[in-house]
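Hi all, long-time lurker, first post. I run a small reading group and we've been trying to get comfortable going from sequence to structure in the token notation. Rather than ask abstract questions, I figured I'd post a concrete chain and ask someone more experienced to write out its structure so we can walk through it together at our next meeting. Sequence below, copied exactly:
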Amino acid sequence: MSLSFTLVLIIIIVIISLQGFNNQSFQYKYALSPYDVVQNKKYYQLISHMFLHADWTHLLFNVISFYMFGEFLEIELAAAYGSSLAYLHFFVLFFLGGLFSTLLPLIRNHTNPNYLSLGASGAVSSIVFATMLWQPQMELGLIFLPGISIPAYIFAPLYLIFEWYAFRKGKSNIAHDAHIGGSIFGIIYILLINFEKGKLFIFSFI
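-- Answer (accepted) --
Happy to help. Here is the structure in token form:
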């Protein structure tokens, strides 16, 4: 039985994250430091940080979200474009979404040697928002309100509003700017490959 691209990436993320848990110098070397990327040309951090996590809670939250949305999106893309092209679209959404999510942190922190970021959140946000745009009617459960679910076309804008508010407030260690960047990339990419999905998302409000 072949593994989905989502599961392959999750296995890699877990293995590398565990290495980071056990080796702090490894974690620091491959986490994202905008200062090091710009000043010391450590461009590999733009990718490597996606496979590291601060702790088990951080790791589990990302891989569970990634699994739930990634598996669904892979199936949907394969049905629409065939397996080979679906893998390509998924690859672009994850890796370029993750890269796009670093733009704002790079701009804001390239002169700050103390800023450090790690985690697949930006890339996962790209997958999550691509999925919600693809299927705006899908019901999403709320972790903090068990038994309550809302459609994706309602959840998506509420999530972005929350992330923007939290980003502007700026009183946490969560990279809200990366979440916003990844989400925007996921939306843009789906509109580029299937603009009708954007229309369907808008019409869901009507």
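A couple of things your group might point at:
The CA atoms of residues 140 and 146 lie 11 Å apart.
The domain at 5-203 is CATH 1.20.1540.10 (Rhomboid-like fold).
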